[in-house]
Each structure stands twice: as C-alpha cells, then as structure tokens.
Amino acid sequence: MGGGLSRHELAAAVSEGGGLGTIAVNGAAAIRRELVAARALTRRPLAVNVLLPFARRDWFVAAGEADAVITFWGKPQRRTPGVWLHQCGSVAEARSAHAAGADGLILQGVEAGGHVRGVTPAAELLDQVQRELPADYPLLLAGGIAEQGDVRRALEAGACAAVAGTRFLLSEESRAHPEYRLRLLEAEDTVLTELFGAGWPAPHRVVANAATARWLDGDPRGPLLNRLLNRLLVPGVRYMPGALQGRMIRAQRPSSRLLSPAGPTDDGPQTLIDAGALYAGETVARITDIRPAADLVRALAP
Ligand SMILES: Cc1cc2nc3c(=O)[nH]c(=O)nc-3n(C[C@H](O)[C@H](O)[C@H](O)COP(=O)(O)O)c2cc1C
C-alpha cells in the first residue's frame, strides 16, 4: 500500500506472522531506509512494491535489495535480477507479464482497494488467466481478501497465495492516519472513481468523504474537466520535486479541482481526511476491528 501507508513496521510484522510483508514508499532513499529498518525487525523475506508511473531508475536499484520486487501499473518489464512479481488486471496484461519473464503474477480483481487495474471480479480473472498460462505458473489473488474463508476459496480455486491490502490498512502497524482508520471502520460502501487522479489518472476505490460529496454528482468517475486536468499533469509528475508535491498536497482541500492520489498517513496533513483519497476495497464493509498484523496473518491462514 503505497505513499508510505505500508512501511517497515507493517511489512516486518506481516513477514514475522508468516506472510510476505511489502514496503511501499516513494524514492530510492526511502526504499533503502525502510528496508534496513524492516530487516532489523525480521529475518524473514520482505518485498518492495514499485509503482511504475513514478519510478526512476535508482528506485529499482534500491528495491532490488528486497527478497521480491512487485511492480504495478505499467508495461511489465524485468528491472531487477531477483524474484519479480507483477500485479495485473486483465488476461492480456497477465500474458504480457508472463512473456516478459515475471516469476509470478498478482491478479487484481475489481473489488480491490487503492488503484484498481482489474475490471472483473478476482475469482473470474483467476479462472480466465489459468486457461491461458502454464498450470504450474504462480498466480496470487488480490481483491476481496479479508477473512480466512476468502483465502481458502482463493487457494481452492488454484491461486498459490492470497494478497490483502485493506485488511492490513486496519492493522496496528499500518501508517494510515487514525481518523482515516475510523472512517474505514464506519464505512459500509466504496466508490470506484478517478477523482483523486492529479498526475495519475487511473481508477481507484475509496470511501466517500467531503471531496467525493463535492465532486461526484452523477458520474462516479468525477467531472470531465477534473479528469482532463489530471491528465495534463502526467508528463511532469515523475520529475516534480518532492517539496513542491508536498506543498500541493498540504494545500489540497475538498473544493480543489486537482486532487492528488496521496493517501492520509499518520505523519501527513490532517486535511487529507476530507480532501484526499480514503482508499479501501469492498471488504471494508466486513472489517470491524484494528488488530496486530501478525495476528491477522495467522487468522487469515487456513
Ligand atoms: C490503501 C491502499 C493502497 C494501495 N497502494 C498500492 C500500491 O502502491 N501499489 C500496488 O501495487 N498496489 C496498491 N494497492 C492495491 C493492492 O496491491 C491490492 O491490489 C489490493 O489491496 C487488494 O484488494 P483489498 O484492498 O480488497 O485487499 C493499494 C491498496 C490499498 C487498499
């Protein structure tokens, strides 16, 4: 879970619990720092997630120190020599990542929280991809995983592992802002929108807040003008200085036409609770508690 929602505390706790914890931060220095901090907490394997629309060459060098690198949202291409997984949302993308030499794929269903590549339910996508790729090729399933029964169904359907985001957003070790977590605990519904797309105009699943109330009147994707402006920022976003990005995020209000994809972290501005993306998957309706991540991994394992 990017933008610093999943840092060393969460990744290490998940790995200690028997899962594969994933660090998701922006920039080579941050990736290196979080990985060193996580290694101090666990000797078990750790993954680093790299968002392809933002990644620079040195991010891959830093991420390559992890036991696995997971890429998302872009042309699948091997960038690191070790274990590489690519998260896919369609059969075509799965075929292309397999052909590019990915060691395995995460198949993301449309139920997922955060940025949603998938357009079909996870179980359906798994079935479709299984027909296309070799029987022993590792397929991991993401989207809709929050309880042991979800994991069991994914494994019985032939996935080699289940991937969960939203459930771990509501863990003690996630870096989600406390008020963001409270909003999720109360949420019964999500919306798939493109509203928080400044520089990254891609569908994302969120819980409603003041910004969605202000802008999502009719079309859940958001007003056409907002979406056009979001696209205009794309060429610059990879190279925009961090300080400028930080200033824009701090200035963001529910009435802003340009809304960044930054999620509310516990060390970020409080204003993002109502002006930012409250990412969550459909499982948010079933999650009613915040628990230690290692306990969650143990409870999820069949
Ligand atoms: C808050 C949040 C942030 C996310 N950020 C990323 C990200 O940076 N990179 C990525 O590959 N996937 C990201 N995802 C998507 C997850 O990898 C995964 O597909 C999703 O969490 C699965 O659905 P679930 O949330 O229902 O468990 C994010 C998901 C959430 C909920």
Assembly status: single chain
What would you give as the CATH superfamily of the largest domain? Aldolase class I
Largest sheet: 7 strands, parallel
Strand/helix succession: HEHEHEEHEEHEHEHHEEHHHHHEH
Ligands (ions, cofactors included):
flavin mononucleotide
**What is the rounded Rg?**
18 Å
Structural class: alpha/beta
Number of domains: 2
Mind explaining what this structure looks like?
The protein is α/β, with parallel strands linked by helices. The chain has two domains: 8-172 and 287-300, TIM Barrel (Alpha-Beta Barrel), CATH 3.20.20.70; 191-279, no CATH class. Helices cover 37% and strands 14% of the residues. The chain is built from 14 helices and eleven strands. Strands 1-2-3-4-5-7-8 form a seven-stranded parallel β-sheet. Strands 6, 9, 10 and 11 form a four-stranded antiparallel β-sheet that branches. β2 (46-51), α3 (57-63) and β3 form a beta-alpha-beta unit. α1 (8-16) crosses α14 (293-300). It is globular and about 50 Å long. The mean pLDDT is 96. The site of flavin mononucleotide (FMN) has 29 residues, from β2, β6 and α7.
How would you summarize what this structure contains?
The chain has helices at residues 8-16, 28-39, 57-63, 91-99, 122-132, 148-156, 166-169, 178-186, 210-215, 224-232, 234-237, 242-251, 272-275, 293-300, and strands spanning 21-23, 46-51, 68-72, 83-88, 104-108, 114-115, 139-142, 161-163, 191-193, 204-207, 278-279. It is an alpha/beta fold. The strands form two sheets. A seven-stranded parallel β-sheet has the order 1-2-3-4-5-7-8. Strands 6, 9, 10 and 11 form a four-stranded antiparallel β-sheet that branches.
